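Working notes for the structural subgroup meeting. M.R. asked for a predicted model of this chain before we commit to crystallization trials. I am recording the input and output together here so anyone reviewing the notebook later can reproduce the run.

Input as submitted:
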Amino acid sequence: MPAKRVKALLLLLLLGMPIAFYLFLQGFGENVYNIPVFYENGIPDPIPGCAKDPKPHLIDEFISKGPCQLWNCPDIDGKFVVFSFVQTGCSTTQFSEIARVCNVFRDQVLFKTVTVLLDSEVSAELPDQNASLYGLSQDDWSWWPYHQSVASLVQCGFNLSLDCNSWEKLVLVDNLFQIRGYYLATDPEEMDRLVTEINLLLMEVDT
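Returned structure, recorded in token form:
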């Protein structure tokens, strides 16, 4: 084969590879890792006391029923938020994993971590203690103080029961207030999945 034809073929291959890779990602890659949107047709079996509604389930309406001035609700608008919960008598072993996630995304302006206090007996010093222990500020890790409306937020908003088993779970909410995942904070593999899915959602915003 003449040298000119070989060079032309090599040039064609070099030019075509990026295009083929792009088409692969567009056509096949989208289905490799699909992050679900939970409750697009409402929660099918809501917790007793919570209304059944067929429309897409968004948690902003449950947050807005609470004390937004106290919770600084605008601080999470348009952001990806990991919610966690703490209650007197329940384990707080999840805090170390929450801190790890905070550190991964501490410079990401579209990410926020929020821990909701579920009763008035939780120590008011807990946020400062954790900030000191893990080297995180209130800007990195927000704490929403107890209010009587948190039961509705947890049960009807996040579809979690009010028991200690639920407090080991973290909930990922996207920038449209849709629930995108539940993660067991005591499982390192689940936390790795959480970090991966946050990164993928952030990439979707950037593209």
